[in-house]
Amino acid sequence: MKKKRIKSPYASSLYWPGGVIYMVLFFIPTVLSLFFSLTRWTLQDWEFIGFENFTLYFSEENLRIGFRNTIIYAVLTSGLKVIFALYLASYLSSKLRSTGFIRSVLFFPTLVSTIGVGITFSVLMNPYEGVINAVLKSVAGFFGKTTDGPGWLIDPNLLPIVSIALVDVWKGVGIATLIYIAGMAAIPRDYYEASSIDGASTRQQFYQVTIPLVRPAMFSVIILSFVGGLRSFDLIWAMTGGGPGFISDVLASINYKQYTSGYYGLSTAGNVILFVLVSILVFPLSRYLNKKEVVM
Amino acid sequence: MFTRDKGLKSKTKYRSIWADIIGVVVTIIVFILPFYFLVVNAAKSQEESFRLNMSPPEKWLLFQNIAKVVSDYDWHVLNATKNSLILTLLSVFFLIIISGMTGFVMHRKRNKASAIANFLVLTALVIPPAIVPTIWVLQRIHLYKTLAGMIAIEVAYGLAFAILIFRNFIGTIPKEIDEAAIVDGCTGWNLYFRIIFPLLKPVSITIGIISTAAVFNDFTNPLYYLPGDENATLQQTLFAYVSRYSTQYNLLFADILYITAFPLLAFIFFNKRIVSGMTAGSIKG
Fold first, then answer.
1. Where are the domains of chain B?
2. C-beta of residue A254 within 8 angstroms of C-beta of residue A66
3. Which residues in chain B have Cβ-Cβ distances shorter than 8 Å to A93?
4. What's the pLDDT band for B279 if we cut at 50, 70, 90?
5. Are the beta carbons of A9 and B30 separated by less than 8 Å?
6. Structural domains of chain A, ranges and CATH numbers in brackets
7. Which of A2, A36, A39, B130 could form a disulfide with A46 if both were Cys (CB 3.0 to 4.6 A apart)?
């Protein structure tokens, strides 16, 4: 028995503009990258060389640093944003008088140029002339001690990537807070009233009511900032350019360096590696978080 | 909101004043001082700015410094301002039009296409774009190194996020509105652009602001897809000036301040709308 099909009032052709742009500029290049990562490529013509790009990429010493830094950066930025933004949002959802002011100020850095922020902070973090170390020195002097202050961006170990991650948190915590505030606004007031009748303190309400119910917003913050951290490039490029040496390189900055040197196949292979890394970390993470949400 | 006895009330009031003071002081130190540093140093003379401290300038040269930055190198920054504004306005315009209609049909017409579209949107949020192959594609369609190509890229990369927010917001619009219009014979593209799109104003503004900031401040994509001095956007000039003005911190900071002025103005005008638009059921989990 076949029902006669009525023409739907919703036009499928509304898909066309978005679909075409997405296909041509996102989907097709992604598929092509799988092929071109296996070639030696000049953009005019290519030569198939199998997995040589990948073995070359993995044999380089600085790639290990890049891998490590990418993970550290993503974990650190998303972890700190998730925690700071949670407390900030609960502070800003309160009835305090300063919330309007703090909310505006907090959100402003998200609108400002990343490059501008990076340049400003690299000057502030200058180990010899920077304001931050000058303050540290005078504070130490006040307690009768002397210190040169840390070499924020020129330290030969992990400190440069950590410093950049802190600036990233400074810039990005506003948007994370905003997502939390939206989530908290959606929690029905009844839960707070019921728990306060039962004698719960504000602190208990925060841990027993707010945190469990704001979980969907928390998961959005985790996923968004983790993905952003793994793909991050511009702040790092503005603050250290991956330096000193390769100390603060991440996968995205290594790919850019390969691209400017004309190793297009190699750069594309790096792109595919980043693509795989992001996929194997983020998709299981998001499935895990979604599962927890259902249990709750 | 809560019923409390009197003693508790005055205690919480006392505590809330302290929370206010601490909150404001910490905010000023962490968020305002870096901007203060930027402003005073952008207003100093070259020798004075070289000391890189927080003291106010002996003489305010802010407008002279900004004028110098804008006119230097044959008005390079002015040209970049034009490029940035064209790129931002057109990208955001097309982004809102295209993502809204996609979000609408995705939400209202549940079929195989909407399931595929959902999947593609979620993957596009996560997966990093394949850069060099995109350059190759742009060359094939003669859009590499052109503003038009750059606009198309910004739309393509902004689509997923904008569609997601539009689709969630459209979920809050009752289907009865569609049905009333359909009964009156309004279907297809007309249904969306005449009936639904005007109702999306709050969320369109939110997306407009967020993507204006994203496109205007985008450094990475023009770096790859729009090289060349005459095509430079403001972010590109800033990066180039790190080496050009390496001894003239006052001009470097004046350039940063000039660039920041655009989002600052948008922020002052739309601040309330951003937060209310975000909380109006747009982003929820």
1. 6-42, 66-279
2. yes
3. none
4. low
5. no
6. 60-295 (1.10.3720.10)
7. A39
Which residues from chain A sit within 8 angstroms of residue B239, using beta carbons?
115, 238
- A295-A179-B270 Cα angle (round to 5): 160
ipTM: 0.87
From B278's Cα to the closest Cα of chain A, the distance in A is: 7
Cβ-nearest to A15 among B117, B220, B238: B117
Closest residue of B to A230, CA-based?
B128
CATH architecture, range B66-279? Orthogonal Bundle (1.10)
- For residue B246, CA distances in Å to A273, B46, B138, B280 come to 35, 11, 35, 45
Condensed to tens digits (0 to 9), the pLDDT of residues B76-119 reads: 889 999 999 999 999 999 999 999 999 999 999 899 999 999 99
Instruction: Look at A98 and B152 and tell me if their CB atoms are within 8 Å.
Output: no
> How far B59 CA lies from chain A's nearest CA (Å)?
21
The crossing angle, in degrees rounded to 10, of helices A114-124 and A159-185 is 130
DSSP type of residue A40: E
Q: Is A47 exposed, middle or buried (0-12, 13-18, 19+ CB in 10 A)?
A: exposed
**Exposed (0-12), middle (13-18) or buried (19+): which is A45, by Cβ within 10 Å?**
exposed
